[in-house]
């Protein structure tokens, strides 16, 4: 134990859990790669203004949860609380929208930072795999992304997740709905904080988890009843495409999401085995974000899936991912000359594509064999002075216990044959 611990709300990823994490990242991104999404990586910090303008001044993420700081040079920066604003910023900066076909399809994987109250499934540093399709307004694109997420979860063997779907309208129909909702909310018995929220971000009130608030929301106007014809038809097409692809969803007229940039399609994946932090992923369309951060009009859609919570969801369902590969061969040298020779053999085996490990630290035979067994290797490669004098090493099958000499100069070919 050192005198330090990982900061509150963070945790270390160590084997074997780290292998599960990597397998989940791989599985969540595989469908994207097959669908033509290119990999993008952006800095872990950005100008604070990108998030306050992009994610929204009135969101919890910006007002309460950002790791914002001023550098020694006087620049206001923030650790990224999410990926969408950064990816769009990077695409605009590189002119990707002018250079190639639209939409520009990108995927990413990385750590994000929010100063939230830590609890099970909610961390201050967490990991997402995300996708953004920039510069096209087409219900097929919304459906594509949602289906890719569904397929990603399914490929992991996850079953008990649900897809919640809603439309938040656009600049045509949302303002009138917002005003109607505000009228309704102002007639309720709400605390001061919530009343303030009614003024700034009334849709968020629909998402209030408190029963006392939820009870009063019965009969509140819903966006779905106020959608303009264009939004209604767009949403209907998304719903039909999802149904045709067998991507089951539940219409959730109260789904509003915690970021301000959404328009039209919004969705969330929830898992019922996770308690209060049940959202394993979410996303939607953000047709106005590019203009909000100073770019041209670029209607876009995307999602981010939480890796930490997906791992928890897999655990909750008892899904075991394939364990990481064990070594094929574990070398046990007896004496200095054997250390030199076997280390050479291990290097050659690795170069030939064989997974090989070594008993480091000058262990005696008993301890070294214990390490070999513990590693889960199929074969131990044992050599002492007498073997080397005969130009051979002992190859022991750790499963059957069978052991026999193999000529050193035929070692790699022999092992490769045995492994086939
Ligand atoms: P978000 O809903 O804020 O959306 O986050 C997406 C997912 O990240 C959540 O569903 C959850 O699984 C995970 N997540 C968020 N906060 C935490 C936390 N504190 N601890 C653990 N996991 C967490 C976005 O970030 C949007 N950028 C998604 C998007 C992309 N929309 C359009 N494009």
TrEMBL record:
Main localization, broad class: cytoplasm
Domain Aminoacyl-transfer RNA synthetases class-II family profile positions: 1-323
Gene of this entry: hisS
GO cellular component: cytoplasm
The keyword Protein biosynthesis is assigned to this record: yes
Subcellular location: Cytoplasm
Protein name: Histidine--tRNA ligase
Superkingdom, natural source: Bacteria
GO molecular function: ATP binding; histidine-tRNA ligase activity
Assembly mode: Homodimer.
Catalytic activity: tRNA(His) + L-histidine + ATP = L-histidyl-tRNA(His) + AMP + diphosphate + H(+)
């Amino acid at each position: 134990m050192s005198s330090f611990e990982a900061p509150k709300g963070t945790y270390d990823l160590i084997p074997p859990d780290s292998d599960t994490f990597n397998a989940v990242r791989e599985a969540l991104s595989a469908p994207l790669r097959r669908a033509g999404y290119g990999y993008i990586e952006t800095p872990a910090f950005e100008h604070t203004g990108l998030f306050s303008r992009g994610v929204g001044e009135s969101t919890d993420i910006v007002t309460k949860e950002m790791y914002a700081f001023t550098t020694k040079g006087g620049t206001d920066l923030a650790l990224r609380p999410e990926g969408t604003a950064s990816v769009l910023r990077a695409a605009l900066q590189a002119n990707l929208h002018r250079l190639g076909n639209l939409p520009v399809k990108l995927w990413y994987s990385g750590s994000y930072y929010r100063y939230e109250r830590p609890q099970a499934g909610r961390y201050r540093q967490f990991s997402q795999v995300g996708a953004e399709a920039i510069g096209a307004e087409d219900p097929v694109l919304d459906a594509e992304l949602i289906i890719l997420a569904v397929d990603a979860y399914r490929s992991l063997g996850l079953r008990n997740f649900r897809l919640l779907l809603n439309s938040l309208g656009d600049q045509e129909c949302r303002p009138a709905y917002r005003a109607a909702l505000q009228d309704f909310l102002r007639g309720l018995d709400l605390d001061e904080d919530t009343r303030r929220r009614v003024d700034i971000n009334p849709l968020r009130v629909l998402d209030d988890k408190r029963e006392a608030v939820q009870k009063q929301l019965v009969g509140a106007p819903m966006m779905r009843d106020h959608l303009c014809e264009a939004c209604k038809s767009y949403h209907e097409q998304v719903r039909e495409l999802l149904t045709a692809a067998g991507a089951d969803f539940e219409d959730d007229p109260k789904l509003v999401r915690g970021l301000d940039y959404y328009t039209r399609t919004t969705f969330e994946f929830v898992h019922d085995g996770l308690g209060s932090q049940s959202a394993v992923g979410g996303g939607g369309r953000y047709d106005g974000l590019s203009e909000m951060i100073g770019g041209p009009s670029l209607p876009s859609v995307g999602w981010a899936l939480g890796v930490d919570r997906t791992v928890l969801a897999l655990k909750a369902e008892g899904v075991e991912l394939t364990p990481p590969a064990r070594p094929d061969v574990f070398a046990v040298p007896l004496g200095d000359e054997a250390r030199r020779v076997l280390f050479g053999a291990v290097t050659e085996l690795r170069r030939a594509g064989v997974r090989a490990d070594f008993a480091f630290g000058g262990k005696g035979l008993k301890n070294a064999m214990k390490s070999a067994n513990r590693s889960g290797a199929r074969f131990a490669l044992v050599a002492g002075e007498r073997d080397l004098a005969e130009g051979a090493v002992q190859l022991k099958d750790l499963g059957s216990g069978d052991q026999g000499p193999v000529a050193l100069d035929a070692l790699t070919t022999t092992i490769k044959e045995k492994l086939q």
